[in-house]
Amino acid sequence: MSAHRPLRRGIAGLTCVLGLSIPTEGARSDAIPLIHNLAIVEFVDSPPTGLVVSGGLLGVADSSGAFPVPYKRFDPVTGNFADPGRVAGDALVFANLRPGRYRLALVFLHESRIATKLLPKHKEKFEDRCMVYSDSLPDLTFTIADGEVRYVGRVIRRVLPTLNQEDLWKTRVEWTPGDEQRALKSLGKRKDMAPWRELLLARLAMLDSSAARVR
Q1: What residue ranges in the chain does DSSP mark as E strands?
Q2: Cα-trace Rg, the chain
Q3: What is the distance between the alpha carbons of residues 99 and 92, in angstroms, rounded to a whole number?
Q4: CA separation for the pair 144, 129 (Å, rounded)
Q5: Beta strands 51-60; 149-161: pairing state
Q6: Residue-level pLDDT at 7
Q7: Which residue, 139, 149, 134, is CA-closest to 97?
Q8: 94: β partners
Q9: pLDDT in tens, 20-68
Q10: I need a surface site. Which of 48, 61, 111, 191 has the fewest CB within 10 A?
Q11: Strand ranges across the sheet with 86-88
Q12: What's the pLDDT score for residue 13?
């Protein structure tokens, strides 16, 4: 997949999502066991485009441990499955994943409330998606266990002008380690994250302990 992708519908339209193919009805042979974990990915548009994160998907590895192309959300051999992520501010969180390996695939974006007020009136709201399922971003492949909080990092989509008359704007996706402590503290304050608060607090305590040893 090319690192540069055309920006659809101008700067206002951008959406990144974790990419996964949707399983067919009844494809899952057994119920997912009770699991309690959390994977977090932050997303930023640079410069700001008026779009905000509206959803995302993860891709799962196949029975050989490889990530097939195109990505998929369900593997019938291993039973590995990834539900869509939920939005928490600028972050996507993936909860209660079956322990295993996953890869961020897509991030969906839609027009923010502020952009709706400032942009000219139009029939359809601007939206887009950002495909990040690529070996060029190895840090977006992660392993998670039961009872674990995994901060995957921050994805930055940079909007770049081009001299190409057909595509006036292109985008490039980058990864940075981000600020895990800040992100986890922000999530811990949200009411909708209450079921995972103990896990978040335990991870923050571990980070604080590691920082103290470094000093």
Answers
A1: 4-6, 38-46, 51-60, 86-88, 91-95, 100-111, 127-131, 141-144, 149-161, 169-176
A2: 18
A3: 18
A4: 25
A5: unpaired
A6: 43
A7: 149
A8: 39
A9: 333 443 444 455 457 899 999 999 988 887 788 999 999 999 989 899 9
A10: 191
A11: 4-6, 169-176, 149-161, 38-46, 91-95, 86-88
A12: 39
Question: Within 10 A of 143 (CB to CB), how many other CB atoms are there?
Answer: 12
Instruction: Indicate the SS3 state at residue 211.
Output: helix
Query: In which residue are the tokens 């992708």 written?
Result: 5
Structure tokens that stand for 204 in this block: 């923050």
The closest alpha carbon to 107, from 67, 158, 151, 57, belongs to: 57
Q: Backbone phi, then psi, for 120, in 5-degree steps? A: -60, 150
Q: Which residue in this structure is represented by tokens 């993936």?
A: 94
| Range list of H helices, 107-165 | 113-118
Bridge partners, residue 57, by sequence: 106
- Encode pLDDT of 131-190 as tens digits: 998 877 899 999 999 999 999 999 999 887 666 656 656 788 999 999 999 999 999 999
Element spanning 209, H or E = helix 197-214
Residue 9, token pair as written in the block: 């519908």
Q: How far apart are CA 112 and CA 50, in angstroms?
A: 6
For residue 203, the one-letter residue type is R
Is 139 within 8 Å of 27 (Cβ atoms)? Answer: no
| Cβ contact 93:37 at 8 Å | no
pLDDT top residue among 80 and 191: 191
User: What is the reported pLDDT for 8?
Assistant: 43
